[in-house]
Please model this.
Amino acid sequence: MKSLYEKALESKVKNFFVVRTYDFKRVIKKLAGVVQEFNLRTSSQYKLQLYGEGLETFEGVKPFEKEGFVRAVKDNQELVFVFRNFLPLSLDETVQFTEKYGLEGTPVKVFVLSPDLELPYWLRPHYEEIEDYFPSKEEVPDLEYAEGLTSLELYKANEEGNVLAYRERILKQSGGILEVFRPQDVDRAVGLGDVIELIESMYLSNRGRGTLLLGVPGTGKTLIAKNLALKYPVVKFNVSAVYSKYVGESEQRLRSALKTLEQFGKCIVFIDEFEKALAQNRAVGVDTRIVGEMLSFLQDRGSEQYFIATANDVRSLPLEVIRPERWDFILGLLPPPLHIRNQVIDYYAQKYSMPFDTSLAKTEKLTPADIASIYRVGSVVGLDRAKRFVKLTKDLSEHFEKTYELVKRYAVPVYEEDINELV
Model:
């Protein structure tokens, strides 16, 4: 199968390419190899010309001369121009080059290498974009490999002797947007085993998109993700960290994070309190663009990442976020029924070496977090005092009853449906 670079050289009308990469040396070497093979196969005589400020400073490469470029275009010279981190022509000159000389079949090819060069939207028809951020395993055969690292990062990681730890550290450099989720002291998700098993099966099938967990606070939404993190790589996506006060930077930060996430490899992506993250910044147009970028990624990405998002207030989620085909399932978590409530009480009674409390079992709309808090505090001050002083979720949230009804409307309540039939 031909690479995108081979197809670029063969094209009669495509002659301007923007290569998105962090890995300049590798991409230039790859381009040089493709040009050499193309020459041998087609009896062409293409030559590669590199330009960049760093090349001028350290390698003595002559600065780019626009007059020489124009001459090469008009003389139909077989040249591949590679520009590192700068646009060699003005926007209108780029249009003239692609519309006139590209369509006339000039053999000159232009490759601009940059991870974040911003070009106006109207210029999009005049160039092709190639994404080549990270090396494949075949390109670095002598190194222990991990997805999501540049060649230089792989060399550094191999020198340190722990590639996976290095990759996790790279995630942390995303400005707090991405981090490996490593919860401590994880409680068992009592009564939610079928939900966890269902998510596991969709994740491992490579055909799943994600699961949206709606529910009142304290019902085990985050606990599900914590339990999955004990078995699988889980990356926490802090959407709220995407936002920036500078125009256009939020979208750029999101695109960069999504690309890093995509290259990280197979994992579960966890977004906690999705609706609050989307609602954090109300600048005109920003939310719309951020939601659009997120939805586009959810719809078009490959099967390597499986998303789990939690939300307490479904009313704050745009309709396009919850429509069919965005998620495999929209599951609702409400305070558990009596038989599950008894199991939760029994679990925490054993964890803290305390008696089973029958009065708690009789309390309606008690969440697992309520029970956990009462027993944890009770292990210090006594169970009776804990029941007296620990406020319950239903008493703290003025929207508790409304949320309760909305979850039933928009989601499949996990305790009222036989989830195990799907497993």
Observations:
- The first helix runs from residue 4 to 10.
- The chain has a mean pLDDT of 88.
- The longest strand covers residues 305-311.
- The chain has 19 helices and twelve strands.
